[in-house]
From TrEMBL:
This is EAL domain-containing protein. Residues 24-277 form the EAL domain. The lineage of its organism: Bacteria, Pseudomonadati, Pseudomonadota, Alphaproteobacteria, Sphingomonadales. Keywords: Membrane, Transmembrane, Transmembrane helix. One of its GO terms (molecular function) is cyclic-guanylate-specific phosphodiesterase activity. The chain holds residues 491 to 775 of 775 of the full protein. Signal peptide: none annotated. The keyword Membrane applies.
Length: 285
């Protein structure tokens, strides 16, 4: 502070944008390198049928392990990717890896569905439709086993356009899921206007149902809403057995969370055993 008086405002603006440009170019280069050298990779979190504990799918979650900075959480670098104009590249990379993993799971006898996160900002452009079509063709992954989780739906600025693009994506085969349902403005409007086939109740609600009657009421009623709208409701952020039991009693079909499994590497998915199976195995020995 206090050093700006000597500059005219216009010069400050120009200086700032030059610096931004240089910063963006180096960030772009770093992201491009990270994408091609394996620093950016996926881990997978199981989704189970609440009634039986059977794993029916996984959500692919991106990780960046920088040799110097260590593990960078997606909440940080997704925004950076966006600022650097690399969201599309990241998403293509993630889609391809996830579809290839889906095929590999199947070859190991696990016909899982695979969910990929897609930022809402991408569903304003037709590019995403071509990207998903190309990746499905190139990898040969069964389109009906792919789920596209649309994140940050509150950032959708043009519902007509987004609805068209989501319809075109759905026509390729994937399920279209609304991620983090309930948080961020306009969740219900997005649900009304966009062709979602799945809702993921945000963990802000799920994690509180044991202790907060309001959260329990919201979750119960989102489950009913799902039934009425004929969309699958997935509860995310299930952190303990008690919550899983409440969800089971409320008729929730699919759940995901640390109580079931943390996100884990590909190889651990192959040997993953659900909570129920683990318990019945322990009972047997
Ligand atoms: P999300 O899609 O809602 O993913 C779930 C996040 O919650 C994951 O964090 C997961 O590790 C965490 N989580 C799962 N179960 C529990 C639980 O029981 N308790 C708690 N406290 N947390 C749980 P992660 O991997 O850090 O991802 C954060 C967000 O980053 C994701 O939220 C998603 O919005 C975004 N993201 C992750 N991967 C991608 C990607 O490939 N592309 C895009 N566009 N966004 C991504
Ligand atoms: Mg998600
Ligand atoms: Mg989510
Ligand atoms: Mg979330």
């Amino acid at each position: 502070e206090g050093t700006t008086e000597t500059y005219e405002p216009i010069e400050i603006a120009e200086l700032a944008s030059d610096e931004d440009l240089i910063w963006n170019i180096s960030l772009q280069a770093r992201i491009d390198a990270a994408l091609s050298n394996g620093e950016i990779y996926l881990i997978y979190q199981p989704k189970i049928l609440v009634a039986t504990g059977e794993m029916v799918g996984v959500e692919a979650l991106v990780r960046w392990r920088d040799p110097i900075k260590g593990l960078i959480p997606p909440d940080h670098f997704i925004r950076q990717c966006e600022n650097a104009g690399r969201m599309s590249q990241l998403t293509r990379h993630v889609l391809r890896d996830a579809c290839q993993a889906g095929i590999a799971f199947e070859e190991e006898g696990l016909p899982l569905s695979v969910a990929v996160n897609v930022s809402a900002t991408l569903v304003h452009e037709r590019d995403i439709v071509n990207m998903v079509r190309e990746v499905l063709q190139d990898t040969g992954f069964d389109p009906h086993r792919l789920t596209l989780e649309i994140t940050e739906t509150y950032r959708i600025s043009n519902y007509e356009r987004a609805a068209e693009i989501l319809n075109d994506l759905a026509a390729l085969g994937p399920k279209i899921s609304m991620d983090d349902f309930g948080v961020g403005a306009a969740s219900l409007e997005a649900l009304q206007r966009l062709p979602f086939t799945e809702l993921k109740i945000d963990r802000a609600f799920t994690s509180a149902i044991k202790d907060n009657p309001k959260s329990a009421a919201i979750v119960r009623n989102v489950l009913n809403l799902g039934k009425d709208l004929r969309v699958i409701v997935v509860a995310e952020g299930v952190e303990d057995e008690a919550t899983l039991t409440i969800l089971r009693d409320s008729g929730c079909l699919v759940a995901q969370g640390f109580a079931i499994s943390r996100p884990i590497p590909f190889k651990e998915i192959l040997v993953f055993q659900s909570v129920d199976k683990k318990q019945s195995l322990t009972n047997m020995v």
